[in-house]
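In the lab's daily routine, each protein ends up as an entry in a very long ledger. A line of letters takes care of the sequence, but it says nothing directly about the fold. The three-dimensional part falls to structure tokens, numbers that each stand for a local backbone shape. The outcome of that step, for a single protein, is printed below.
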Amino acid sequence: MHRADSAFQRPCVKIMLPWLQFRALIFVFVATMGCLSLAVPTVVFAQATDAAPKTVKFGIEKHGAIVYRKTEKYLVKCDIYQPIADADADEQNGEETDGKPKVKPAPLMPAIVMIHGGAWRAGSKISMLRHARRLTRVGYVVMAINYRLAPKYPWPAQIEDCRAALDWLHDHAGQYNIDTQRVGVYGYSAGAHLAAMLATTNENNNSIKIRAAAVGGTPAEFSWIDDDSNALVYWLGATREEDADVYVNASPISFVTPDDPPVIVFHGDADLLVPVESARRLHAALEEQNVDSELVEVAGYGHIGTFSKMDLMVDVIKFFDQHLTPQAAPPAE
């Protein structure tokens, strides 16, 4: 299904970004995400302008800076946002429950692995704070992750960390009241690329399979970058002219198959960093394989604006509710 905010659809075009413009846009995106996350107060209330798709029922308990992957050379951390039920949850309208009696909701809860953007070279889990809290307030355990960054750690270090996060979530499911048969993934920009990779290569996820994926501003393939451009050399190690295979193998669209989980793809149609055509191609590839896919194009919004448009979470929550309910989840393997 393809939904847009206006009837006008731009023609398919190949967009080439000069390296300096690409780098400048990355800098602005990362800096803006950091400012947006820091601007959120410690105690967050549901905002009137962001109409919730269902009644807010839970407070939030955050477990921060948890190491989910450790070697002799590096540590990789995550934050867990856990729904907490108490007698005043409806009146709090999603407020954190510090100082109040906390009770784990029952039964087991669905979980979302949340992956930040930053061009695979910058960014942090803290940039996803508002999105994580929005999901937690309506009953999702959220695992917001960091991952190793390029150029120190080139591809495929990032997707390796994402798969390790799934393994950690499986091993700690009991601690956080998680139903491992109802796990989805959410990402934006580079995080959306990694989320889409998890979804389209589910067979490579060991302990947990992704049941639904929400991806925004997604670089699902890289045909829009010149063959001789060095824009992604810091991450992929070569230009596409020098090593076409690495670009194919780093593209989620290359791995779409009929058994992929449902996907919602949202993208600003004025995005100058990742062209909307990349999202359209991902949606088309999923539909061609009869995968449940929804494309939401946000008219007049760019890369940063779409990330900041919190009312898109209404669509995302509705999507996750549809596909991660107990009835939608497959039987235990």
